[in-house]
Amino acid sequence: MSLLSKLEEAALCLKAGKVTLPYPADPQPAPEQFRGRPIFDGSKCIGCAGCANNCPAREILIYDVSQEIRILQYLGRRCTYCGRCAEVCPEKAITMSRDFESATNRIGDLAQRLELFMSTCQRCGRCFKPTSTLEELKMKGYRFDDLQNERGIFRSQSHLEGNAVVDDVEIELD
Amino acid sequence: MIARDMFEQFKQRFGAVIRRADLPSDNRLFVFIDPSSVKHVCGHIFRELDARYVASIGVDDRPYSGKFLVSHNFAFDKDHLLCSVLAYLPSGEPRIDSISEIVPAASWAEREMRDLIGIEPVGHRYPKRLVLPDGWPEGNHPLRKDVPWNEVPDGFDESREFQFDDPPEGCTVVPFGPFHPTLDEPAHFRLYVEGEMVRGCEYRGFMVHRGIEKLAESVMSYNDIPMLAERICGICGCVHNVAYVQAVEEAAGLKPPPRAEYIRTIMLELERLHSHLLWVGLAGHIIGFDTLFMQSFRIREPIMWMAEKISGNRKTYALCVVGGVRWNVTPEIKAELCQVLDKLESEWQAVVAAVSHDKNIQRRTCGIGVADAALVKSAGLLGPVARAAGVDIDCRRDHPHAAYDRVAFDVITETGGDVWSRVLVRMKEVFESIRIIRQCLEKMEDGPLTLEIENELPIGRMGLSSVEAPRGESHHFVITGENHRPRRWRVRAPTYQNLQGVPAMIKDQPFADMTISLGSIDPCFSCTDRLETIDLRSGSVKVWSQKELLKLTQAKKA
Amino acid sequence: MHVLRAIAGGLANAGIIVLIAPLAQGILRKLIARIQSRQGPPLLQPYFDLLKLLGKEDLESGEFPLMQRFAAYLSLATVLTVACFVPIGFAVPMNGAGDVIVLIYLLTLCGISTLLAGLAAGSTYSLLGISREVTTMISLEPLFAIAIIVGALHAGSLRLDPVLRGSVWISSGIPWSGLIMLVLMFLAFPAFVQRVPFDISEAETELMEGPLAEYSGPKLALFKYAQMAKLIIYSALFVTLFVPWGSELVFPIAWLFFWTKVFGLVLLVTLIAATHARYRLDQAIRTFAGFIGIAFVALILASYGH
């Protein structure tokens, strides 16, 4: 009988020991290069929409609310964590974090929304972003200690009524 | 023999029907012929010239040339040549002679052409729906250019059912799937069982058809598609990623830098390692040997960690862009990878030794699911299934791509043609993969990872790419197009061909062996299915709430 | 008085087996997990599994819901009844209540409850499953019956107490029949307790869903429990029939010996289960048929007193 070979197999297995990791009791962080949830940094973003153009899942949407406000919304539903957005961003405003524990039952939890205050081009009237935050603040005369207006981002909601809201995604795709 | 010489041969034999020929390189040949002589030409290539059938593709070319296009692809493995026989069909009622009588392996591809593009294969033995759901309205062919990618068709007929053939005499019908514990993905095998023996089978699949090709043509761009391609399959993603990018690079005449080619090779082989180890475990699980399953997965885990360190993810490497790769292999990673490979090799040698002498496993796998060399040729079987039958084909050697022409490796073949031979082939291929990775790590040159591509890619060029997936040859066909996206992209995964051989493999065998026979081709239904399911029931998209689902499952049967 | 004591003894017997059966299963699962290099469930997990199943909604489904209920009740009932008889280190509690024939029939009845379960479901797969179960039972149960009968022949009686005391070893010379039956029963033991390599027909299959496909909730708990109890019961029967030595000692030590042997047998079954693949039905039947052939030789030898 192949009894001996079976005993050998059993010995082989037992030698390897126990490999079960006590996750989630013990946290198991992902390695450095892990492509987890992308984090969008509004202070660096210049609203170029390079990420939106290169997202294979078309999950980053750019929406010009008015002449000066551009909304960049990362919806995060179909995001495949490919990292193209982070790769093409000229300002390195997007980082692929190591966060993979992002299960949720509210679809809006994963969305990130940047409201960008942009200057307008004097010739064509379309948005573009000036070079520094200070410039923005000076232009609009904001007070530096006004927390609501930190980073020069204009957070008025009034003109956004009836438009897309973070939790209930209503923006038309494509 | 290079393409030019092969073309001379063609010209001699049927020069009269050749309209045009493109020879973009020494190992690619595109021959445009009269549609009426397609059977004659393909028959000659398949039989007299002993080529291997690869794929058949239908293209809706009406916006550009006003016609439909059909392509039958063949491979001359010994000559390292991929040959495409193309024919333009007038728009209107496109029809072409079916070649499935001469080349049974083309049966599914022609049914797919019929479903998705509406090109009727005249004389096909089995002209039933393959890809589209049964209720899909007639005349609506999704891959045609005038059908929008997000259309939900009117007239979806819920009550229509697939017409199965009658069972042979004396057989009962045993439905296998779409829900079955052994299958990870839905597929329906309608088995005709007489007592314990399976006498025949009919397959209805494509339940997870996802619309990938249509998406790629409509809304994605060249560099988006690799991310989509790698999600075609749950295990062999890197293969599709690389194959697509290679096809585009070939069509556009780009050559990626050498370092990128080595990195692509390393990732492809890493994928082959983890896939084969997974399969050996899965085979053990199917025959009830769970310990082999657990041990294979334990041994395989360090490879997944290495892949995560190199590319950022255990399986979806997101490796390629057109013109290069995105991740680098640093010296630290190289050192760690060498360690991992050494450990893997020693552990796997112990497992191979144990399994090779294991009579218990052999009793369940010897003589089962036999596919001999004749079946391999006629059904176009690929990969370890073919190599286990003694047919010596391997795209890494026959159609060198990435850095395979610069590394040395053996192609493992066995002669049994049964499940046991496939087990042996896959187990031994692990060692060859390790060998290739070590050579790549040594020979890898420094240099850029991607090409700087300044101009838009040329339009209307064709590219073919055959990459050896763990399951066999994965073949991609790309026609470049406007707006930075391809006009047509066809993926022919190896399981597409291997599944066509399954009915012959399970015939006249005990029913209990059906699962291990099916499992031995290493089926990857997601690779096969590729396209979209709009909700099968009503043609509309319905999102079921948890409460509704709960009610559905708890409904008491009448 | 005597009757009351016997009944109390039988119930206590059954009670102890009821309590310990899931623990044996827990040890088996833990050991298999360790061989597979993983942590495995806690030892008391089967108790929690049963509790969980008992707490679920009790659904009726399948073709014959009434038979579905009945099959579940039957399986537990037969197992509990046998548990009253099986000696667990003491003398057989209800010695006068039945003889070995009752034992054999009760165990067969337990197998029949699985058949009824599959019939109640009525689906193709469950019917295929029970056809395999029947085939296996036909070739397997006789082996156990022959073992018992060999013991009965040697002991000269069909009563439980004389037979279940290592009666196979009673012999005028070298106990050939005892040795043969020991080897055969040991090799076929995994089949009796539905473990790899012989667990073809039971719910463990991936080959098909099996006869227990339509079961969930409390009814499934009954079947699962019957499976767990069968492991202990068959082990106990095996030990008392074939390795009874040490039972003459003083009470605590004899008991410990007994349970050590039983758990030792469980360990061996585990080792075999962890290192083998499942046999196909025809391969298993051929094996069993061979075993029965040899068992008949043992029977003939036993009738001549060897």
Secondary-structure blueprint:
The complex is a heterotrimer of chains A (174), B (558) and C (306).
Chain A: H1 3-16, E1 38-40, H2 50-54, E2 60-64, E3 69-74, H3 84-88, E4 94-96, E5 112-117, E6 119-120, E7 127-128, H4 133-140
Antiparallel strand pairs in A: 1-4, 2-3, 3-5, 6-7
Chain B: H1 3-14, E1 18-25, E2 28-33, H2 38-48, E3 52-61, H3 62-65, E4 67-76, E5 81-90, E6 95-97, H4 107-116, E7 120-122, E8 172-176, E9 188-194, E10 197-204, H5 212-218, H6 225-229, H7 237-252, H8 258-286, H9 290-311, E11 320-321, E12 324-325, H10 331-356, H11 359-365, H12 373-379, H13 383-388, H14 395-398, H15 419-443, E13 462-469, E14 472-479, E15 488-492, H16 494-506, E16 509-510, H17 514-520, H18 525-529, H19 546-554
Parallel strand pairs in B: 2-5, 6-7
Antiparallel strand pairs in B: 1-2, 3-4, 4-5, 8-9, 9-10, 10-16, 11-12, 13-14, 14-15
Chain C: H1 2-35, H2 45-54, H3 65-85, H4 100-121, H5 124-155, H6 160-163, H7 176-192, H8 218-242, H9 251-275, H10 281-303
Helix pairs in contact in C: 1-3, 1-8, 1-9, 2-8, 3-4, 3-8, 4-5, 5-7, 5-10, 7-8, 7-10, 8-9
Search tags:
heterotrimer; A: 174 residues; alpha+beta; Alpha-Beta Plaits; three-stranded antiparallel sheet; two-stranded antiparallel sheet; disordered C terminus; C: 306 residues; mainly alpha
